[in-house]
Structures are given as structure tokens and as C-alpha cells.
Specification:
Elements lengths: L4 H4 L19 H12 L4 H20 L5 E5 L5 H8 L3 E6 L2 H10 L4 E4 L12 E7 L8 H11 E8 L1
Parallel strand pairs: 1-2, 1-4, 2-3, 4-5
Length: 162
């Protein structure tokens, strides 16, 4: 059995105190809002959008083949991380929101999810084949830094979209 991406990725400094891990628990209201956000993908409009985004993402990943380990930066509730995993990829999701990550873990108990920022990824150089930023870059304070970090951890390339 293949070792999971977080173990392979050479997590940097995760045993030390991190500014990204405050230890705070998300509020019940925040978790409920995250659940409602994720539930949108089950609506007719959300389902259509998800299929279109997944088709495009799949086509773009095909250009970077072979791909086995993917980092989903700004994964939110893990919708696309779960989809990437369903393709047989070793997908890891990273997000800043504890509430979003709680829902991601709820809906994918065996998934790999970490808290962190796109501008300071806690992974070794070249830890993943590809880094994806699906509708997340627009929420990052320093987009240039986030792309530099994504390129640092991705051996084969980046996929992002607004």
C-alpha cells in the first residue's frame, strides 16, 4: 500500500507550534455554514457547476500526466479533494478555515486535510506532482506568494482557476 501524501510530503515544522494552528475550535455556526456551503454541490446548479469544473480540471491534469499526488490548496470543505481521491489520486487538502476543514473531515473521514495558508505551505519542495487552486486564489492575500509556494511544492505543475 502506498504511503499517504502527508507522510511522503515531508511536512515541515508540523510538530512545532505553528501560526496556522491556533488550536481553536470552530464555532457551531461556522461549521453549519460550511455544511450548507458544501451541500450546494448537491443542488441542480451546484451539480452542473461541479461537473463542468471537474471535467475541466480532469482535462488539465491530463496534460500533466502522470499524476499521483495532488495538493488542493484552499480546499474548503474538500469537495474537489474528495473528487481527486475518487480518481485514485493521493489527494491532500489544505485550508485556513477550521470550520471548512471540520466538514471536509466529516465527509471524508479517511481524507488528508491540514490547516495552513497558501502563502506558507508546510511541505517540502517537490512534495506533490501537482498543486491545484480551485476557486481559492481570489481569497488569498498575497496571490503571487501563493503561486510561488504552489510551484515550490509541485514537481510537474500547477492548475488554478478563478
Amino acid at each position: 500500500m502506498r504511503e499517504s501524501a502527508p507522510k511522503q510530503a515531508g511536512l515541515v515544522g508540523m510538530s512545532e507550534p505553528s501560526p496556522h494552528d491556533t488550536g481553536s475550535q470552530p464555532s457551531a455556526a461556522g461549521v453549519e455554514a460550511a455544511r450548507k456551503y458544501d451541500d450546494w454541490y448537491a443542488t441542480p446548479q451546484g451539480s452542473r457547476m461541479a461537473r463542468a469544473e471537474e471535467e475541466l480540471l480532469g482535462d488539465l491534469l491530463g496534460l500533466l500526466d502522470p499524476v499521483s499526488a495532488v495538493l488542493d490548496i484552499g480546499c474548503g470543505t474538500g469537495h474537489f479533494t474528495r473528487w481527486l481521491s475518487s480518481l485514485g489520486l493521493d489527494a491532500t487538502g489544505l485550508d485556513l478555515s477550521n470550520a471548512m476543514l471540520e466538514v471536509a473531515r466529516e465527509r471524508s473521514p479517511g481524507g488528508h486535510y491540514l490547516r495552513g495558508t497558501a502563502e506558507a505551505l508546510p511541505f517540502a519542495e517537490g512534495a506533490f506532482d501537482v498543486a491545484v487552486l480551485v476557486t481559492s486564489l481570489e481569497f488569498v492575500a498575497d496571490q503571487e506568494r501563493a503561486l510561488v509556494e504552489a510551484a515550490r511544492v509541485a514537481r510537474r505543475g500547477l492548475v488554478w482557476g478563478y
